[in-house]
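## Example record

The block below lists the input lines for one assembly entry, exactly as stored, with component labels intact.
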Amino acid sequence: MQPCSREMQAMDSLLSPTQPIPLQDLQPNGNSGTHQAQIHNPQFDPTSSHDDFLDQMLSTLPSCSWSDLKSPWDPPKSDETPPSNPDNNAGFHYDEILASKLRQHQINGGGGGTTAAMKMMMQQQMLLPGRPIAAAGGGGLTMPLHNDIVDGSSFKSPNQQGGEGSVQALYNGFGAGPLHGTNNQSPNQPQHFHHPQGGNMQTQSFGATAGTVMNQSQASGSTTGGTPAQPKQRVRARRGQATDPHSIAERLRRERIAERMKALQELVPNANKTDKASMLDEIIDYVKFLQLQVKVLSMSRLGGAAAVAPLVADMPPEGGDCVQTTAGGGGSLQRNSNGNQPSANNDSLTVTEHQVAKLMEEDMGSAMQYLQGKGLCLMPISLATAISTATCHSRNPMMNKGSSSNHPLLQSNGDGPSSPSMSVLTVQSATMGNGGLDGSAKDAASVSKP
Amino acid sequence: MNNPHHLNPTSLKSRFTTRFLRALTKIRAQKPISSSSPTEIFRRYRRIKVAADKSMAYSVRSRRIWSRAMLWKLRSRSYRRQDPCSGRRSGKTSQAIMKKSSNENTTTRREDGVGFVEEADELRQLVPGGETMNLCNLLDETAHYIKCLTTQVQVMKKIADFYSF
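Predicted C-alpha cells for the full assembly:
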C-alpha cells in the first residue's frame, strides 16, 4: 500500500534512503525485503483495535518469524481503507508495527551478531530518563528503531524541530507506544494520539530532549555495536564521547598533550602531577632554574678560563654534587657582583634568598654557585655580626643564611679570624677553594681589604 | 685511566663537551685576563655563556625547533654586532627561518582548549623559539630542551670543578 498522507511520504522518504542498512542489520537476512515492504506500507489499524493488537503481539509465541508476525497484521491490513486521519494515527500504527516486529525479533533471539547490539540497546533504553521500562524486551526492541529515527533526524538536521514534524510524531508515538503498552494504559492511548498538534507539541520537546539523550547514549554505548544508523566508515567513539570529527581531533590532541606531559614529568624532579597546571608551573620553574645554573656556571668559569689547561678529552669524576665548594673564580665573582649587579636593595635580596633556599633543597653545590654568582657566601651568624660591627664599609655584601654554622665551606678554614678584615679574606679564599688560583687569590685580596 | 664517561662518542654530551671546550680555549686565546673592570668581566661572561649556548645548539644541529631559533638568534646578534647595516639581511634570514618553523608548526597562537594559556605563554618565553609553537609541540620541545640544559649544566659543572681546585 502506498503511503497516502504527506507525512507518511516524508517519513517514507526519510527512512527508506537513509535507514535501510540498520534495519537490515537487525533483521535476519531473509526477511529484510518483507520488512522493508512493511515499512513502506504502514498499517493503519482502527484506533480501537490497539489494545487487541498489542495483546495479540504479546501473546504470540517466540517461535514466530518475521513472516509469521506479518500474519496478524494481514487481516486488519486488508480491511483497511486509506485512513482519514493523518499523521499521528498513522505514526502510531507504524510504531506499533515496528515495535512488535522488533520485539518478536528479540524474542526470537535475534539474528547472529545483533544480539549484542540488542542487549546494548536494552541497556541504553534503561539509561533513558523518565522511561519506566517495565519490559526489558520492549525496551530492547524499541532501541534500534529509536536509533534509526533519532539518528535520521539528527542526520538530517540536528536542530531542526519544526521540519521533522512527522518524524517527531513518529518518534513520540513510538516512544509513547511501547511505554503505554508496557504500562497497560490502554484507554489513554487513543486520547494521547488523537490530540494531533497539542500533544505533539508537548511530546515534541520531550522527543527532542530524549532524542539528544538517546543520541548520546547511543554514541556512548557504541563500543561494541557500532553506530548502526551512521555509515560504517565512521570512527567508533569511545564511551561517553561524541563521534563528530572535531571532538575526535580534540581528543587526539589532548591525548598527545597528556603523553608529553608524562614524558616531561619524568625529566623534571618533584613531579607529583597533582594536576596539569601545577605540573606546568613545575616545569617552568625547572627550566628557569636550569638556565640560571648555566648562567652561574658560565660566570664562575671566568676565573677558571684564566687557567684553562690545554684541551683534555677525559674529565675527572664529577664532584659537583657533593657539598664541597665548587668555587672556580670566586674572586672574580666578587668583582662581578660589584660591577654587574646593582648593590643589594631589599627586593633583590629577598628574591635571592628565596632562590637560594630553593636551590639548597635540591643541590648544595648549585646553591653555592648561585651565591658566588651574586658575590655572596654563606657564613655563620656570629662571624657575620663580628664583621659587620668591625667594618662599616665592606664592599662585598654578606648575607646571613640562618645559623648554618657547620658549613664545610667555613670549616675548611680551621683557624679563627684574627681580625674582621682578615676574616673576610679568609672567607673569600675559602670560597675559592684551598690554595685557589693565583690570579683570583690576588684579586680577592685586593678587593676585600677595607 | 679508566674513563667510564663519554662512552658514546656521538652522544649529545660528548658532542657538546668537545665543542664547548674548543670554544673556551678560543676565548681564552683571544683575550688574556688583563682587565678587571666589571664591564669587561661581564663581557667575558657573556661571551662564555654565548659560547655555551651556541655549542649546545650546534650539537643539536637543526633537528629541533628551539635549536634553530637559538642559532638564528645568535647569528642575528653577531650580524648586528659586526655590521649595523646588515639588519636587513638578518631580517631576511629571520623571516625565512620563522616562516619555515611556522609552516611546520601551524603558528596559530590559538586558545589551547585545554586551558593552560598563561603557563604556556610563560613557557614559550623561556624556551627559545617557543612563540611559534602550539602546545603540543611546545611540550615536546621543552622536554628536549630540558634534557639538553641538564647536559650542559653537568658538563659545565665538571669543567668548573676540574679547573677550580
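Helices of chain B lie at 12-30, 38-60, 65-82, 87-105, 117-126, 135-164. Chain B touches chain A through 59 residues (CB under 8 Å).
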